[in-house]
Amino acid sequence: MKYLTFAAGVFCATGVAAQTPELTVYTYDSFVSEWGPGPQIEKAFEAECGCDLKFVSAGDGASLLARLKLEGARSDADVVLGLDTNLMASAEDSGLFAPSEVDVEYDLPVAWESDTFVPYDWGYFAFIHNKGVTPPQDFLELAKSDMKILIQDPRSSTPGLGLLMWVKAAYGDDAAQVWADLADNVVTVTKGWSEAYGLFLDGEADMVLSYTTSPAYHIIAEDDDTKEAAAFDEGHYMQVEVAAKLAASDQPELAEQFLQFMVTDAFQSVIPTTNWMYPSVIPGDGLPEGFEGLVEPRKSLLLPPAEVQAARDEALNEWLTALSQ
What we know:
Layout: H1 2-19, E1 22-27, H2 29-32, H3 38-49, E2 52-57, H4 61-71, E3 79-84, H5 88-94, E4 97-98, E5 118-130, H6 139-144, E6 149-152, H7 158-171, H8 175-182, E7 186-190, H9 193-201, E8 207-211, H10 214-222, E9 227-229, E10 236-246, H11 252-262, H12 265-268, E11 278-279, E12 300-301, H13 305-323
Parallel strand pairs: 1-2, 1-3, 6-7, 6-8, 10-12
Antiparallel strand pairs: 3-10, 4-10, 5-8, 5-9, 5-10, 5-11
Helix pairs in contact: 7-13, 8-13
């Protein structure tokens, strides 16, 4: 009799587990790290959805899209989180993504028009340096200096691609010469942001490509005010990070629920002090202390998604040519 009771209990438990829906979200490495937003967001969403939220780390943003294109409709992903405006046109052309019903008033510096890609945070690219270092005022001054920089590969990293678009938006046809002049300043090119920033903290270079919000991390998490973002006269390129659901998802309703959850306070309030970016919808309590006094670009640069693809190919060739010399 005890055996029958035990067996029935195992059967019921197995049945409950089998009925728990699973939502698979592809995202980038730092998002799912123990200090990133992933753990808190997973706990909050699972409490709301009655599901199993599974984050899958699949490299940086450009690597995410490359993997999804390779997997196609066979992908296990229901949602991808970590693309940005520089990748949106290519993602849209892939036909892999479905429109969302998210309708919210965003707190973005630009008007948002896409009904497929849902923005969850944004920021400005910048070079971070230690206080006491006199930073260059623009890319031209940087190229003339002896300062050493760490950057990310635009073929795998959204910051790396953002840097290409930054130089292209600021200098246009002169971008190739700017990269030729900058080549000697580059210490190394890393696959993603985490590797580059770690090398900077280890003292391997004078500056690292990151975000104007990066000093907030050191202030809030480490009580360290020794890091600053260099303000460039030609302006700073903006990044808006987005998520979207896969058209081939076997959990379309759950995927939509996650996208709707992304623009609520439960998600947005986690972003500033874990992803260290500005939330796309300012939470009710506002931004945390430590975000005041950050560098505000004199000019915001952002190429429309439809123009990025052509500019990207040209900029990548210019970059490869300069760094291969």
